């Protein structure tokens, strides 16, 4: 680009030069055919056209000059020399707008722009092919918005917008709210380099209306959109969202990428990003609480107006894919969310989402402003959601790290760091189909966090829960208060759970009354129930020998079965000895053992769940006794079968007892109970 000054331009121009035409040559006679015609802009590189705006001129004159420059340039680049220009409203239609603002150029609004609705719109281009370079505008809280493009194309590079919007005028039906760049029905949008700060919106105690809307960048039913290298901070108002991407058409076609953004929110930033419709690839986004962020009170980490940091907020078709980003949502109720289905979905991958460790305690921003105390969430998907997922991400803090309630949700490969109430809440009162929860590592640090249970899964069919691990992080104090790692609570649930691991003292998976088959779950006990310490009778009367407690629900499902083996010895004396076998409260076998020999005995008990009616169990019990050397024929052989009703939602005791005369007349040596359908026991 050529270098020039206004003085050089004026010196070179002829006295009769047309306004805005660079170094226009005097009128010439007709040029013979074949003779080269002199260039009318010989002092400057092709395409450069200096603006006729003047720092000393009025806002109205500079607005008129801007319009005239664009028209006269006829597609060539208009260059605005350094200086501070007051500019009134600029309306452009069916033009090629190609303007470069040189470093040191600043636009200020004319006082006439302090108005609501179209009168407060600073620049408005309709069906224009717009290219802006280096636009710097300080609204001084006078205009309602800065640049609007309807139709055509829009490209802006290295843009700075400050202090748009106001709070002293009342909105009306023509108000669009406070906007930095609004593109509506634009074919292609490219914004590369945008810095915005301190946009204000009016507070009228009515949400989701235009008067209180505040957006730095709003894309409405455009087509191709690329936004990158953005920094936004500050501001205040209701419905204050830094980004708003909106496509309400029956089949939204707006799509694009947003990348390399730094968003600094305060307690007035309702959302950093709001999506409604379209397909978006969002990456390398960084959200932080700004220096001016203040929590609403000392009881919470949440700001006064803050809702969801990054939010799919409309029942409109489309996908938000957020990747490789860092979202510090400490000041928000929710980090990343899908709050209004069912057509949209949100996919989060390779992200870090950070939240506070305290509940959201505040008066609701919306009327009637009732006080609420709710839990914060890192990733949230409503029951109307379909196909949302979070994977390979870090979710740190929050009351509930991940809440998914829709169909075909996935929570895969994440690191969940120090959740306070649940690391996972899945499902709702509405039945849903398919949930995958796999490969997640849950780190627990805070004493008392996730007390009783760490997660719950409700009302899903086709559940796949596998390879999840609970890790107690060593420290001065270790959090060891939780009883259940993964709790499947609904009786209608179906699916599998396998290889989920929890430390000693914590149940890895509790499947409850569900039809979720649980395999190879590592918890406090990895083996079948095993007792090896000898237990003998004590004198006269009936005494318990070895006892095997089948955990609750393990004999609740049709076909669940166990086999218990009890072995023992008898003393070589003449005392009477009686062995009994119990299934729960039911006595299933009574047999006298042989006096006068050093005997050995074995009981095998098989119990199978056949819940035609609740808790119905069928059993087969077999007793063999021989002399201890095993050299002779059995001296006692018994088999018994039958049915018993037990409460299978509680532990069921399988045991042997002995009634004899002297201590140790009958001794039980070993007891072992195995599951016969391939499942390890799940301890509740």
TrEMBL record:
InterPro entries named among the record's database cross-references: Pectin_lyas_fold, Pectin_lyase_fold/virulence, TAT_signal
SUPFAM superfamilies registered for this protein in UniProt: Pectin lyase-like
Key word Cell division present: no
Keyword Nucleotidyltransferase set for record: no
Keywords: Signal
Name of the protein in question: Right-handed parallel beta-helix repeat-containing protein
Signal peptide (UniProt feature, chain positions): 1-29
């Amino acid at each position: 680009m050529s270098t020039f000054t206004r003085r050089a331009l004026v010196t070179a121009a002829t006295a009769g030069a047309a306004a805005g035409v660079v170094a226009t040559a005097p009128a010439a006679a007709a040029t013979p055919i074949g003779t080269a015609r002199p260039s009318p802009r010989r002092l400057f590189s092709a395409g450069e056209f200096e603006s006729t705006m003047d720092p000393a001129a009025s806002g109205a004159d500079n607005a008129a000059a801007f319009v005239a420059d664009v028209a006269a340039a006829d597609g060539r680049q208009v260059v605005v020399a350094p200086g501070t220009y007051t500019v009134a409203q600029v309306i452009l239609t069916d033009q090629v707008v190609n303007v470069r603002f040189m470093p040191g150029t600043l636009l200020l609004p004319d006082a006439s722009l302090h108005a609501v609705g179209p009168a407060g719109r600073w620049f408005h281009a309709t069906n224009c092919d717009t290219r802006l370079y280096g636009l710097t505008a300080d609204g001084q809280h006078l205009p309602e918005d800065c640049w609007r493009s309807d139709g055509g194309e829009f490209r802006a590079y290295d843009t700075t917008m400050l202090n748009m919007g106001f709070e002293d005028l009342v909105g009306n039906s023509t108000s669009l709210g406070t906007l930095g760049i609004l593109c509506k029905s634009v074919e292609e949008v490219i914004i590369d380099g945008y810095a915005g700060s301190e946009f204000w919106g009016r507070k009228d105690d009515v949400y989701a209306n235009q008067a209180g809307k505040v957006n730095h960048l709003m894309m409405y039913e455009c087509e191709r959109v690329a936004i990158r290298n953005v920094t936004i901070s500050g501001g205040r108002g209701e419905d204050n969202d830094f980004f708003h991407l909106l496509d309400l058409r029956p089949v939204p076609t707006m799509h694009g990428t947003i990348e390399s953004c730094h968003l600094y929110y305060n307690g007035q930033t309702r959302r950093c990003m709001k999506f409604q419709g379209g397909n978006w690839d969002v990456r390398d986004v960084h959200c932080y609480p700004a220096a001016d962020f203040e929590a609403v009170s000392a009881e919470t980490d949440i700001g006064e107006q803050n809702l969801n940091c990054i939010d799919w907020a409309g029942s409109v078709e489309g996908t938000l894919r957020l990747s490789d980003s860092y979202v510090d949502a400490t000041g928000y109720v929710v980090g990343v969310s899908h709050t209004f289905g069912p057509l949209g979905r949100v996919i989060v991958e390779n992200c870090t989402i950070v939240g506070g460790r305290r509940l959201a305690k505040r008066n609701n921003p919306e009327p009637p402003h009732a006080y609420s105390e709710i839990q914060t969430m890192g990733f949230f998907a409503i029951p109307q959601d379909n196909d949302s997922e979070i994977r390979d991400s870090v979710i740190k803090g929050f009351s509930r790290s991940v809440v998914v309630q829709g169909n075909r949700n996935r929570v895969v490969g994440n690191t969940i760091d120090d959740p306070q109430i649940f690391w996972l809440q899945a499902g709702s009162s509405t039945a849903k189909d398919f949930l995958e929860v796999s490969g997640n590592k849950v780190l627990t640090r805070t004493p008392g966090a996730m007390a009783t249970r760490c997660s719950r899964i409700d009302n899903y069919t086709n559940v796949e829960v596998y390879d999840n691990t609970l890790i107690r992080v060593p420290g001065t104090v270790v959090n060891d208060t939780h009883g259940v790692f993964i709790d499947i609570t609904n009786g209608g649930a179906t699916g599998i759970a396998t290889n989920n691991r929890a430390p000693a003292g914590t149940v890895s998976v509790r499947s409850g009354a569900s039809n979720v088959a649980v395999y190879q779950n590592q918890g406090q006990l990895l083996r079948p129930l095993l007792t090896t310490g000898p237990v003998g009778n004590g004198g006269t009367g009936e005494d318990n020998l070895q006892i095997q407690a089948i955990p609750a629900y393990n004999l609740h499902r049709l076909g669940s079965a166990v086999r218990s083996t009890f072995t023992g010895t008898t003393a070589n004396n003449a005392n009477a000895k009686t062995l009994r076998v119990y299934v729960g409260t039911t006595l299933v076998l009574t047999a006298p053992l042989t006096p006068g020999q050093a005997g050995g005995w074995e009981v095998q008990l098989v119990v199978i769940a056949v819940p035609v009616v609740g808790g119905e169990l069928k059993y087969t019990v077999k007793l063999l006794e021989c002399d201890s050397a095993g050299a002779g024929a059995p001296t006692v052989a018994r088999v018994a079968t039958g049915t018993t009703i037990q409460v299978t939602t509680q532990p069921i005791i399988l045991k042997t007892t002995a009634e004899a005369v002297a201590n140790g007349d009958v001794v039980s040596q070993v007891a072992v109970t195995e599951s016969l359908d391939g499942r390890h026991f799940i301890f509740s």
